[in-house]
Amino acid sequence: MGKFYCCIFILSFILWMPNAVQAQSNKGINFQAIARNNSGYIIPNKLLTIRVSIKADTASTKNEYQEIVPVTTNALGLFTIVVGQYETNKTVTMGPFENINWSKAEKYLQIEIDTLGDLSFINMGAQKINYVPFSFYADNVGAQNINGIIGVSQGGTGLDNLTDLKAFLSIDKIDNTPDSLKPTSTLVTTALTKKLNTLDTLKLSARINLKLNSADTLSLSNRIKLIAKTDTSFLSTRIDSKLNKVDTVSLSNRINKKINIGEVAATDIISALGYAPIRDDYGSFYDTAAQPALVSTATALKFPFIGFSNNIIVNNNSALAPTKITVSHAGIYNVKYAIQMLKNDVGADIASVWIRRNGSAYLNTNVNFNITGSGIKNMLTGAYYVELGSNDYVELYYSIKNSNTIATGSITQLTPSRPATPSVLLTIDRIN
């Protein structure tokens, strides 16, 4: 069993004013603490998982907001988080932060800590949040709550009635005369007088009436039809060879039904296919070398080789080891793994394997495997559905209790001919 730690926290609450000025939607409350063990010594350079809850009172089990965030203490055991601020490695389990009603009641900040990375949190107590966070309420203060007169320099009028306001703005002499009763200027009257009335266009209308209609040219049209075809034999033959409109009805209809470039929408494709096309995201990653681990230490497995991949890559962690399996698109992913463990000495061991998402342990993924000794190969396998966002990543972690237990592969074998066995293998594909 790993050693449990308890923490003594030095709390400070500071409204994150730079964020409040730059982006109203990205506020938070600064929280600082010093982690100490049960002997009172500071815990330096330690990866911890903190769960922060905001509630109306210490006795209530209902949280108004809750987040889980991984932190690493510095050389003095100090760590800092911004409660409520958006961060890529933070998981909000109750929220969002912007929906907290700061005006209804006092608020309390409860801190819980996970020192082993298995989401087993220890309650470190709750403390009342005092005045500074209530500036969040000022963002939504109602006009009905303002008493007194607000001056012009503060964005008000400096007055408390409409009559004085109209006089102050020099608009008290303006009446509400309808447009139909307002006087018209001389220039407008002159322009209107010069406009033509319907009667002024009788002569033009009569000329239009004298124009020939289509029916008036029937006689002329008939005369043209009586002209001998032989007078234009060559031209007539060429005209007769041309297709008439009725001859191309079928072709014309087919052309009309064609979709022009730029007119194809996503709904048109779905309608034509009968189903919605989806992205194909998958990957296979492995290693053939042995991967040792320290006793009772969370160790990330490395995947330096890629079998197949599409829209999924492996990135290096802070130690430049290829551990982060990173996806391009959001969705539900099926994560499967296989680890070949070998314990050369006699006796048994227990190996724990779990998944981390964006640096935090993923809920309910830890499995404890019994390892048989005396050089017997033990195969550890598991499969889980993991919800990931765009550019999120997962890592596969394991720990052992005996230093003689190691993840190792097998070379190509004969009789019969068999391929090599990887020391670690992970496949991941997006559920469509």
Description:
The protein is of the alpha+beta class and 432 residues long. Among the domains are: 126 residues, Sandwich (Immunoglobulin-like); 149 residues, Jelly Rolls (Sandwich). It contains nine helices and 21 strands. Strands 10, 12, 13, 15, 16, 17 and 19 form a seven-stranded antiparallel β-sheet that branches. Strands 9, 11, 14, 18, 20 and 21 form a six-stranded antiparallel β-sheet that branches. Strand 12 and strand 13 form a beta hairpin. It is flat and about 120 Å long. The two termini are 40 Å apart.
Brief sketch in words of this structure:
The protein is of the alpha+beta class and 432 residues long.
Q: What's the helix and strand layout?
A:
Layout: E1 13-15, H1 17-22, E2 29-34, E3 47-55, E4 65-72, E5 78-83, E6 91-94, E7 107-114, E8 122-129, H2 135-138, H3 162-168, H4 186-193, H5 202-209, H6 218-225, H7 233-241, H8 249-256, H9 266-273, E9 282-287, E10 299-300, E11 305-310, E12 312-316, E13 322-327, E14 331-343, E15 348-357, E16 360-361, E17 367-372, E18 377-388, E19 393-399, E20 405-407, E21 424-430
Antiparallel strand pairs: 1-2, 2-5, 3-4, 3-7, 4-6, 7-8, 9-11, 9-21, 10-19, 12-13, 13-19, 14-18, 14-20, 14-21, 15-16, 15-17, 15-19
For the record, what CATH class of the domain at 282-430 applies?
Mainly Beta
Largest beta sheet, briefly? 7 strands, antiparallel
Q: Unreliable segments (pLDDT under 50, ≥5 consecutive)?
A: 1-24
Helix residue percentage: 10-25%
- CATH topology (fold) name of the domain at 282-430: Jelly Rolls
Radius of gyration: 40 Å
Q: Gap between N and C termini, in Å?
A: 40 Å
Provide the β-strand percentage band. 25-35%
Global structural class: alpha+beta
Coarse shape: flat
Mean pLDDT over all positions: 84
Number of helices: 9
Care to count the β-strands? Answer: 21
